[in-house]
Design brief:
Blueprint (H helix, E strand, L loop, with lengths): L10 E8 L7 E10 L35 E3 L1
């Protein structure tokens, strides 16, 4: 990302997984609001300035089937 960025005032993001080459997607994690994160101190304001901390954590559920081929999409 570069200045002025692409924060879009903090929308929402999802991480999904597919086992059939992208025909069906299963949502693993949703982040509602402030994704991509806006610059600290500007949260809730109309801005396109992003924060440098874009680390997002998630856990893959234990019940997901094992596979030699899976697609993960952000």
């Amino acid at each position: 990302m570069h200045e002025p960025g692409a924060a879009h005032s903090g929308g929402s993001c999802q991480l999904s997984i597919s086992y059939d080459n992208g025909t069906v997607w299963n949502v693993v994690q949703s982040w509602e609001g402030n994704c991509v994160r806006v610059r600290k101190g500007l949260e809730g304001q109309l801005t396109n300035s992003y924060d440098t901390d874009q680390a997002y954590t998630f856990r893959l559920p234990d019940h997901l089937p094992s596979s030699d081929y899976a697609l993960i999409a952000w």
